[in-house]
Structures are given as C-alpha cells and as structure tokens.
Design goal:
Blueprint (H helix, E strand, L loop, with lengths): L3 E10 L2 E11 L4 E5 L6 H8 L7 E6 L5 E4 L13 H5 L7 H10 L15 H13 L5 E5 L7 H18 L2 E5 L12 E5 L3 E5 L1 H6 L1 H7 L20 H11 L1
Parallel strand pairs: 3-7, 3-8, 5-6, 6-7
Antiparallel strand pairs: 1-2, 1-4, 8-9
Helix pairs in contact: 3-4
Length: 248
C-alpha cells in the first residue's frame, strides 16, 4: 500500500491556478525529489499533502496511522529567544532521552544539546530540525527545501545524510529541491512540477524528458547532478553542468 496518494489535486489562489490536476504517490522506503521553477507550486503541494492547506478539488489518501515527519522551509523561531537544542527537541512535549540521543546521532548532531539555537550554523540548525522530525519515528519524512541557504558542499552532505537515514530507518523521503543543479543521485524518482506534473521518473529519465528541457532549456543536461560532484561548485556553472552530464 502506498504511504500517501494525491489524486487530481487542484488549487487556486486569487483566481490563479497553483495546482492543476496533480496526482502523485509515495511508496514505502523510496526517496522522491520534487523539482520545478520558482512559483511552480512546490511548497503549496507540500502543505496540501501534510494537511496545512485544503485543495479545491481532488483527494489525498494516507496509509492508516501514517507517521509523518516534517521539516519546513523556514523555522519560525525568534533568533533572540534563548533556547537550547535540548529544550527545542523537547517541544511541545518531553521526549525520552534515548530517542533524543539516537536522533542526534543519526543526524550527526551529537554534542549540540546545550548550544543555543541562535548560535548554530545553518547546516547545524538544519540537522537539529531534522533530528526533531525523526523523534516521531516517521514512516514518511517530508522536507520543504531543507538546504536553502547552504552552499553546494553543505547541500551535498545533507543529501547524503538523508540517504543514510532512509537506509537506517527504512522511512520514505519526499523532498523539495530549490536547486536544480544538485539533486540526490539516490532519488528513486524525480517529479518535475510546473503547476501540473510535467514529467516524472528516475533522475536520468527526467533529465532527458522534452517537458523538462522545455521548462529549463536545452543546456540543463547536468541540472540533475550527482552529489559526489560537489567539488565542481567553484567552477563556472555551465562548465560544471557539462562535467556532471559527462560523468552521469
């Protein structure tokens, strides 16, 4: 049984269609990456899938008792508010210490418990937020542009971390990528969204799809890059893309 299925979702804001007849399914244990241009409805789709936004039409079916973990695009916490990592992880209710220790270990965040959230680097904060999402022992982990603000090596490390978590915990991962230049090579499927599902499949299938190239241009051969090429981030974008494509 699919963990989550969206069927024929449509949603408009102020007369503007944001989602048009979107249908997707997420299977147990798979990694699915959602890509698309700015304003294509990616974050709206995520909010609809987790129940924060109601669609105008269509339906969402979840596996009974589905445990969801959610990492939002931005963490709505006042940076001036004194709060340690340990306190953050115990909100809204106290968590068992062994589970906290395991979540911190799984995300490479050991030793940060007494640090203030405001003192964390961007990468550390993302790992702590991910650790908090793991405390629910999710069957499906949903992340909305989790690497926003990180450089490409930071993004690459985060993608590798998600792959390890999937392998260790067996949870499915559904992630929105804001950067078309770096997408998990571990993705079982990539879904390209531009208000509707333009195309989907393995990264290589999507990369070569006419619909994808129509959206992002003919020079996007390496846009679905493998993360082990993060050392190319210092090169000219076009040159790096060609290298990624040649080695894909």
């Amino acid at each position: 049984m699919s963990l989550l299925t969206a069927t024929d979702l449509s949603l408009s804001f102020g007369g503007q269609a944001v989602l048009e007849h979107v249908s997707i399914a997420i299977e147990p244990g798979e990694i699915v990456t959602l890509v698309g241009p700015n304003g294509s409805g990616k974050s709206t789709l995520v909010k609809t899938l987790i129940g924060l936004t109601a669609p105008d039409a269509g339906r969402i079916t979840r596996k009974p008792g589905l445990r969801l973990g959610y990492v939002p695009q931005k963490l709505p916490i006042d940076a001036t508010l004194p709060m340690t990592v340990a306190r953050f992880l115990n909100l809204p209710k106290r968590q068992p210490k062994p589970q906290i220790a395991q979540a911190l270990a799984d995300t490479g965040s050991q030793g940060l418990e007494q640090k203030q959230l405001s003192a964390l680097s961007g990468g550390q904060l993302q790992r702590v937020v991910l650790a908090r999402a793991l405390l629910s022992e999710p069957e499906l982990l949903i992340l909305d542009e989790p690497t926003q603000g990180l450089d490409q090596p930071g993004e690459a490390a985060f993608y590798q971390l998600l792959e390890r978590i999937r392998d260790a915990r067996g949870c499915a991962v559904f992630m929105v990528s804001h950067d078309l230049h770096v997408v998990m090579s571990a993705s079982d499927r990539v879904i390209c969204l531009n208000h509707h599902v333009c195309c989907e499949g393995t990264p290589h299938v999507v990369r070569d799809a006419p619909e994808y190239r129509a959206l992002f241009g003919p020079g996007t051969g390496g846009a679905l890059a493998l993360y082990q090429h993060e050392h190319d981030h210092s090169h000219d974008d076009g040159h790096a893309h060609e290298q990624h494509h040649d080695h894909a």
